[in-house]
Amino acid sequence: MDLNLKGKVILVTGGAKGIGAAIVRACGAEGATPVILDRDEEAGKQLQAALESSEVESGLIVADLTAPGSCAKAMERTIQKLGRLDALVNNAGVNDSVGLEQGSPERFVSSLERNLVHYYAMAHYALPALKNSRGSIVNISSKTAVTGQGGTSGYVAAKAAILGLTREWAAELLPFGIRVNAVVPAEVLTPLYQQWVSGFPNPEEKLARIISKIPLGKRTTKPEEIADMVLFLISERASHITGQHVFVDAGYTHLDRALT
Ligand code: NAP
User: Active-site residue numbers?
Assistant: First the structure.
């Protein structure tokens, strides 16, 4: 199946590591031009160098998405350098454990800044370019949006809002032919995930327990498996798909517990 992404400009927030980096690499492999937007300069440069060695053109914008004006500037720079935008992948986020009891209203708002507000800001500033290209948006959410996790109100509120906004933006952007979908991962072994597991008293045992409950294949999802779905949704092969929440999670969220 040809995704026909050659020459398309695809901006990926949090694109330097983990799921975002897998999306960036997959864009490169399809002949698209990925733009990495991330605060980790070192990881971004390393990824860009790897892309260059495979003769893939890419952009790198080093910025913290929570900094005032950073989203508007990132979009400006993308258009200045590459002249167009065909897809926005809102991906950057962090499960930051701002709980109901172990938290505060101020920390809750900061968590929304880290996990939600920049999704809106990026989509808002990307809109003129996406109208020109009849492009699309993919938002990365989390299964915690529908299952809860405990001790992480800010992150879960953001991830659930992202599912709501996916439907809302799909509706608002119908007249422009801009499709908006969400991809929902559950357990993907990335630097963020490894850091989260390492916070438990016995990380190996914790990970083994989680893996034993993953229905399909009894393994974590590979970042590349999330990337494959994102690229399909961006591509014209998904031309009649909008407002959807696609769970790429080996059945972890929805299948009968009796199966595990
Ligand atoms: P990751 O390994 O931490 O990679 C994310 C990248 O985004 C990192 O380079 C990170 O930089 C960067 N980033 C985060 N916040 C940023 C900000 N405000 N400004 C600029 N860059 C920022 O994370 P991941 O596991 O790939 O997660 C990607 C997305 O998938 C997140 O939205 C996450 O909630 C979602 N997700 C992941 C899983 C999973 O199992 N991994 C499950 C469900 C949902 P730093 O390293 O400096 O933070």
Answer: 155
